[in-house]
TrEMBL record:
This is ATP/GTP-binding protein. Residues 1-34 are annotated as: Disordered. It comes from Amycolatopsis magusensis. The lineage of its organism: Bacteria, Bacillati, Actinomycetota, Actinomycetes, Pseudonocardiales.
């Protein structure tokens, strides 16, 4: 029987609501720490070094990751943070004060 490539349900991060061009292909994600705009950065578009606030390790060029900023509209470019996707998904399990 051929394998079916369907996305799994009920696993991983909560589904993102697409907001379109107004936020540069960002979706919203909600958590205990508030509402966030989250944009995926494919490896081919990751051209700089960043420091992940979740694990404090480098995100090297070519590594896919996410860019996150507050969804309340009060944030600026300086409030954007680059995270490894697993670190972002695990932020609720980390101790307070990491970001």
């Amino acid at each position: 029987m051929p394998r079916r490539n369907k996305p799994s349900r009920g696993h991983g991060s909560p589904p993102a609501r697409e907001l379109g061009g107004a936020t540069g292909w960002a979706g919203t994600e909600s958590g205990a720490d508030g509402d966030w705009l989250v944009r995926s950065v494919p490896g081919a578009q990751a051209t700089k070094f960043y420091r992940c606030p979740g694990c404090d390790h480098e995100i090297r060029p070519g590594v896919p990751h996410v860019v996150v900023w507050p969804a309340d509209g009060t944030g600026s470019v300086t409030d954007r943070r680059h995270w490894h996707r697993p670190c972002w998904d695990a932020r609720a399990r980390r101790r307070p004060g990491r970001w």
